[in-house]
């Protein structure tokens, strides 16, 4: 019997890492074993992964030694950082979230190199500064360093894997369909009608179900070294705001109208991250042709034949979407 190749998965209890762990465990081919990395092996999610057949080990992206030990003996590793992780006020004051991600990726890249990992998949995003340049069309953030920090820091971190000579696939993700459950979905206007307001103007927005990211990663690992040194950009659908609204209308059983904020209106909404999100949507819209063009849906479905489009995802989550409205 052929020995299974071991894949170490950072963030195994999160959306992306958890999706990959579940995909490996459910894979009929059973070509890989999985080591789930978590900061707390005794959490409910960690114990569930262990019960399902994963090897669960404790490791922390801020602790290079723990990553080195967790990567030991692994053929592959999936590396993802969480820009949105809850932080204490003291942690927020100590470093920016972008600095946190860069330091964590530096730890992971060095640990993977030292452990001799043969294939790393790094979950990343575009650096929007390549699009915006030095322009002041959008506000700069993080002491003027970034335009969309949760994009730009990941894009900047790409070079660390190259710097340390780590055999890496750069997996670029996109807008989660799950964002429709987290403030980006339809809202009921004063006239009682549903409106969708995210500021994409008339341009298509690439979206993906979070669990499909891990499944795509498994598809990449299955292709051996084919994608090492390459960037693979993924999505499940490319739809305009009007098309998002049309699919939502069908699923929810009542009309949804696309009535987008302008980018400046969105920046002025006043909630935390409003400026960063407005900059993000402006990037999505202005760079839409290249952004969606890079995300070849045919390749995505080669890697993950079960990849969901928006309609398929909504059929599974319609009640949750309705609950956010009502």
Structural notes for this entry:
The structure is a single chain. This protein has a 7-stranded parallel β-sheet, sandwiched between helices. Strands 7-10-12 form a 3-stranded mixed β-sheet. A 3-stranded mixed β-sheet has the order 8-9-13. The chain folds into 2 domains: 1-172, Rossmann fold (3-Layer(aba) Sandwich); 174-208 and 235-292 and 308-326, UDP-galactose 4-epimerase, domain 1 (Alpha-Beta Complex). Helix content is 45%, strand content 16%. It is globular, with a radius of gyration of 20 Å. By secondary structure, the protein is of the alpha/beta class. The mean pLDDT is 97. It is built from 14 helices and 13 strands. Strand 8 and strand 9 form a beta hairpin.
CATH superfamily of the largest domain: NAD(P)-binding Rossmann-like Domain
Give the domain tally.
Answer: 2
Strand order of the largest sheet: 3-2-1-4-5-6-11
Shape by Cα distribution: globular
Q: How helical, in percent, are the residues? A: 40-55%
Mean pLDDT across all amino acids: 97
Number of helices: 14
Element-level helix/strand string:
EHEHEHEHHEHHEEEEEHEEHEHHHHH
State the end-to-end CA separation.
54 Å
Biggest sheet record: 7 strands, parallel
Proportion in β-strands? 15-25%
> Architecture of the largest domain in CATH?
3-Layer(aba) Sandwich
> What top-tier CATH class of the largest domain fits best?
Alpha Beta
DSSP, total strands: 13
- The helix-and-strand class reads alpha/beta
**CATH level-3 fold name of the largest domain:** Rossmann fold
List low-pLDDT spans.
Answer: none
* Gyration radius, rounded: 20 Å
